[in-house]
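Annotated sample (chain length 171).
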Amino acid sequence: MIDIKNIFPECDADTLLVRLITQRGNANHCKGISKVVNELECRKNQNSYLIGIVDSDKFKRKNDLKYLKFFSENIYNLINNDEGIIIDKIPDKEHYIIYIHTEFEVWAWKQALLAGLNTNEFGFSDINEFYKESKHFRTNESAKFKRFVNAIVIANPPGVKLLKEWLIVEN
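Output written by the structure step:
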């Protein structure tokens, strides 16, 4: 299995998602895409399996973060599909960037709807309420937020299923 410490999520919500999917503790939480990219770049000579997880709304930063240009091999581009995910890798290495499209909140909401979840049962009448809750400090500690994200993971809609395939791998 991939070492949980070799997964670098960009934000609190992504970190919670990884923890709920892998059920193996906390990943290496990074606050922002630049920190995710820096962590991957610091490990560029490692032969181990590495995954950075960022929102695709950060594409605007792609030119600023030069190391991202090394992730030139596209594995999946499913942003127009139900998965809502792009996966790029560095050729000849097991180093990956997973982009959640467009941002966690929009992606998770779509996954919940695809799974047929009643968002009102979790205290979210619309995506704006969910978005607001996700931006609170220490999102991981919000029982309401955690319960909703966990229900999405358990329901296993297409995007979650693809993430599980990548985060729970035998290597």
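Annotation: The chain is about 35% helix and 15% strand.
Annotation: The radius of gyration is 15 Å.
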